[in-house]
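Quick one: Putative mrna-decapping enzyme 2 protein from Eutypa lata, structure tokens please.
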Amino acid sequence: MTLEDWLDDLGVRFLINLPQEDLRDIARFCFQIEEAQWFYEDFIRPLDPTLPSMSLKSFSLKMFQHCPLFSAFSPDDHLRAFEQFMEYKTRVPVRGAIMLNSAMDSAVLVKGYKKGASWSFPRGKINKDEPDLDCAIREVYEETGFDLHEARLVERNLPTDYLEVTLKDQQVRLFIFRDVPQETFFEPKTRKEIGDIKWYKLTDLPAYRKRKVAGKAQGNGTNSNDKFYMVAPFMVQLRQWILKQRKLDPRTAANGSKGLHSVVLEEEELTEDNMLDKPIVEQPVILDASAERFWGFYGTLGCRKMVQDVLLESQAGTETSAGLLNILLLH
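--- reply ---
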């Protein structure tokens, strides 16, 4: 089959038979194109390596041109629609988990699949109407294969604490789970998204302690090529939470409860040895009125990673073509 044949196949699988509601919303349509691109890279190209690999942008523009619903619009219209889709996609709230061992001195990190990918805590975008904690548990399972419910760590860590920062206008909330066995075998359930899963000593991570030897190789394989910019913003808050948790543990054993429902950050908990000059403690994101409207329209379309993102609110006309035209012109 030629590339055009495969594009026809993908159009039928993911686009042509969409409900009218989705066809009237360019964002919903773009999410379907994203699923089609994943399917193309994961399943079609392995069958025919001569087919070109395409970025989401290249694939989206090609599908816009190939799909009869959008082929009448100009390349500039296609590009503007894609750019606005990507802009709002990055504003979807993210939920995940910080998984600690029993000693609370090591955490599980995941690394992206692509070359040069950074390390992060397991996390992902939230689905429409999905509870925050459920999203975090689902993302942990998809990215590491570890089921927090099955391990009974959800119940043991109730009420569940979380740390929250805002990164590039995106709210990231990570729930904290203690007592994850270090002998756990991790294996991602998603395809071509996670390249490595590793336990890291917290003291080996940037921003956890003030004093570190520049360029020193760490015991867990840390080197200059490892990137932790998605981890560092949480380190001061996590350090404070652990110190407070250790102080509470004797009382915890006495009353049978575990955890703090609300994390109280106290600067005096830090010592000169571990304190940053300017602690990284970011405020939760505050969405403007426009973003609040988009929040109500994000959702999931399933497939490889249960895509979940903010959907643009469009003014759907009585005719599908009119609605699409209004959206593509980005009124």
